[in-house]
Design brief:
With 101 residues, the chain is of the alpha+beta class. The protein has helices at 40-52, 56-66, 72-88; strands spanning 11-12, 17-21, 24-29, 34-38, 92-93. The chain has one domain (11-90). The protein is built from 3 helices and 5 strands, in the order ββββαααβ. The protein has a 3-stranded antiparallel β-sheet, covered by helices on one side. A two-stranded antiparallel ribbon has the order 1-5. A hairpin with a 2-residue loop joins strand 2 and strand 3 (24-29). The longest helix has 17 residues, at 72-88.
Amino acid sequence: MSTYLSDPLPVARPTIVWVKLPDGAVLFDPETEVYYGMNVVAASVWELLPEAAGDVEKLCSAVQDLFPDAELEQIRTDVLALLDDLEHAGLVGSNGAEPEA
């Protein structure tokens, strides 16, 4: 599971292209030609990453503000899983660094 509870949040790689859609978003990595589809909640997390300023609790609270019917613990679990997926897909880098190949 993610170490983002104790480590800084990742940042989006600058080469990633994203398009917001009515039901989520699509991320595209032009270097690898990989597409990554997101639902509305995941797209919200992606948009909030820069504003969260490296704090997973702030990020989860911001998500809960958007989706008040969701419980904070479930949001935290889902956000950490999404961050792990994004890192594994090479769409984010830790501490502002490019992910390793």
